[in-house]
């Protein structure tokens, strides 16, 4: 199954609230969500990488939430719809932000060669997680826990005030879980270039 097929299957089976169909239509027919990369040069830096990353984060989140310790000790129970919303949609802020181009790379032979790359150009510089919340909210209502998870999914790797990050992760356990799933997908499943 392709990343696109997997995404649509999870989305349509788990997300049923008002506006979900319009958001999926936007992602499929009015945006580059299914063809965009997840980053310019690192994880998912290929056409379709954004969709693949979103599906990877969903699977990592489901695995995290299924852990005995998470359920029994932490008491974290997240409805399937909330897990799907948070994981599949956390990076919709990247829609329309990448353009194809080339960059020069010096080979082992000392010669420069043009290689394909992506460039990031954000026409709506509204932040990262908060931009995703903004876009999603134009189509469907988010639960507070979902909005906070999407907003703070970068965890401590973002540029925010670290005190606020800590408060958000402590108050909204789904935010912590999503940040763990996002990092697992990024650094272990997708492995950044050169890292």
How is this structure best described in words?
The longest helix is centred in the first third of the chain and has 18 residues. It is built from 9 helices and 2 strands; from the N terminus they run αααααββαααα. The protein starts with a helix and ends in a 6-residue tail after the last helix. Helix 7 packs parallel to helix 9. It is 51% helix and 9% strand. The relative contact order is 0.16. The protein is mainly alpha-helical and 195 residues long. The protein has a two-stranded antiparallel sheet.
Task: Output the keywords.
single chain; 195 residues; mainly alpha; two-stranded antiparallel sheet; 9 helices; 2 strands; 51% helix; globular
Approximate shape: globular
Helix/strand order = HHHHHEEHHHH
What is the percentage of strand-forming residues?
Answer: 5-15%
**Gyration radius, in Å:** 17 Å
Residue share in helices? Answer: 40-55%
Mean pLDDT: 94
């Amino acid at each position: 199954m392709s990343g696109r097929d997997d995404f649509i299957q999870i989305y349509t089976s788990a997300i049923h609230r008002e506006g979900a169909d319009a958001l999926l239509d936007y992602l499929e027919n009015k945006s580059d969500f299914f063809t965009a990369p997840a980053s310019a040069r690192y994880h998912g830096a290929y056409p379709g990488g954004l969709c693949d990353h979103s599906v990877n984060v969903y699977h990592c989140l489901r695995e995290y939430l299924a852990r005995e310790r998470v359920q029994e000790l932490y008491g974290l129970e997240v409805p399937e719809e909330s897990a799907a919303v948070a994981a599949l949609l956390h990076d919709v802020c990247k829609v329309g932000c990448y353009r194809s181009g080339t960059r020069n790379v010096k080979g082992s032979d000392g010669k420069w060669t043009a290689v394909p790359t992506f460039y990031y150009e954000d026409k709506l510089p509204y932040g990262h997680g908060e931009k995703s919340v903004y876009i999603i909210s134009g189509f469907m209502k988010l639960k507070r826990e979902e909005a906070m998870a999407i907003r703070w999914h970068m965890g401590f790797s973002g540029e925010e005030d670290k005190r606020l990050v800590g408060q958000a992760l402590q108050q909204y356990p789904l935010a912590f879980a999503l940040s763990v799933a996002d990092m697992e997908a990024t650094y272990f499943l997708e492995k950044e270039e050169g890292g």
